[in-house]
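S.,

Sequence below, as promised.
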Amino acid sequence: MHLIPARMINEVTYCPRLFALEHLDGEWADSADTVRGRTVHRRVDHGARGQLPEPDDQPDEAPSIARSVQLGDEGLGMIAKIDLVESTDGFVVPVDYKKGRVPKVAEGAYLPERVQIAAQALLLRAHGYDVPHGVLYFAGSRRRVTVELTDELLDATRAAVAQARAILDSQQLPPPLVDSPKCYGCSLVGICLPDETNQLRQGSGTVRPLAPAQEQGLPLYVLTRGAKVSLRGGEIVVKARDEEVSRVRLSETSRVVISGAASVTTPLMAKLAELGIPLALHSWGHRLVGQMLPAGGHNVLGRIAQHRASADPAASLALARAFVTGKIANQRVVLRRNGQGVEEVVAHLAVYAEDAAKATDVNQLLGIEGVAARAYFQALPKAFKATGLAFDFTGRNRRPPKDPVNAMLSFAYACLTRECTNVLHGVGLDPWVGFLHRPRPGKPALALDLMEEFRAVLADSVVLTAINNGVMTPAHFQQHSLGTAMTDAGRRGFVKAFERRLSHEATHPLFGTRMSYRRILEVQARLIAKAVRGDIPAYPPYRVR
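The prediction came back faster than expected:
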């Protein structure tokens, strides 16, 4: 029988969905509160110390203390690691440490905290101890609060155990809380997306700006030929020709991107994996060669649902239509905002988007997408302000790109593929199993699906801005017999432009909250996961207003 930890009883009482996300899906995200909580528990978690007396021992004259006492009972279906147990006069009292201050409520503590200490008391009683009450110690106030073990509290504790077991057995996420103040400060709010999920379920409702607009940390790009990237203390050190080029803190790094012939030490790779920081490798020709992604076992049920949906023609087609309609709609917006004399193409793209939404199979959908792409790229040069042969663009070509515009587009798409693969892996989905793009060796199909609706917004727009603002000039390219490549300076300039775009904050058209495009990518990836699991009725593509 699987025993439910007492801390999980606290969580299911506080929010059943939080409990399910952590213990059904294996999701976790740190916040300032969770970090402070670990700090408070450092002393009591430092191994078991002291001896808990046997239940029938004679009372001690002086009180004794035992720390980190672990008890379990199959009859109760619970297990707990009790921070501290005080024994005196034949009684034992469990003490649980809390990081915050004593709340201003009549009972002296909120119900989830009282349920947790009641669970510990029930376990001690099950082992034959006489437990008159429990104690909560609030580190923020340096005060103890006595918790009376009333019948009502003990019944609530047993009911919470039953609810936790029912959620684990059902393998279903409970619905999110509705407009609850508990969501403020919750470390998993950016994973749960309570207001966003409720809005998509109900078709209405407001969305509070609960999740951070920007992710923590910045990407580290290593573009120096022959560089060596290593770990020193808590920092990443980049050297070239035995001279230090840069040094950044691991705690301030969100990802590491290597271009060309640079070496990365094994200790650094191990530390990046431990901290969940992805490492990507690009060739000098901008192609994404591979990635080292942290090992993750979360959201297994989401991956199972994803594979089932991919094998279901109807479910797969519904998602594929969303990706294509979002892509064409965003291509239309980019042309309308930047192009001159493109009204006819813009009108045609609106029709193509409507046709894509009605497509009856994936092959028909791919045909519509191809026609729309040709019309879009034929009109794209009308959005360029720079003139001259250097930025002549007559259509899409690649492997290798034959002109500067295509060189930038290829690099931008490679970077976007990397970002989409990272974010899908981060939310627990399989980047290699898609819906529009069918599985093929070496192709992250779902990453390619997700990036469709963002190609115009995050890749093409960067190319347009780089050309129109003079960030990229003809001097940033080298012409070869086989094609065109960026110079080192050109690559650095384009990477900065791409990262600025990902960090740019925009208003999400569905939810009305502002967040960076990198965060929007994550939100859309989580919406895919919610759609395949049935948490929301359908996947809504990202469409620029």
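The chain has four domains: 4-174, 176-211, 220-292, 300-533.

Coffee later?
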